[in-house]
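Translate sequence into structure tokens.
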Amino acid sequence: MKDDIGKVEYASLLYDFYGALLSDPQRDVMELYHEDNLSLSEIADETGTSRQAVHYTLKKAEKALEEFEAKLGLIASYERNQKLASAALKLTDRSIKSGKDADRLKELIRQLSE
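Result follows.
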């Protein structure tokens, strides 16, 4: 999925899935940077730290999030399920119109529920 979207968007998605696993300071910096779109300098002013400290915390948090994804694979699973759901919906439309593909539709839905 990382290839399909930009680095910032991917980091935001990682944060959405795994943000609760970060430390409070990491979570705060990630939220200010990715959700509120503040610059490193603005975050430093907001948190009373240096720009370098914010940069370090941000990079450490992003690395932790990538490690969570590598171990748990929730985003990869989410992307897979989205593709399967899209295929199932297309197949449903065709099945309703033609009365075909019912077995394939059942298989896609079974895969989604795994």
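Note: The first helix runs from residue 7 to 18.
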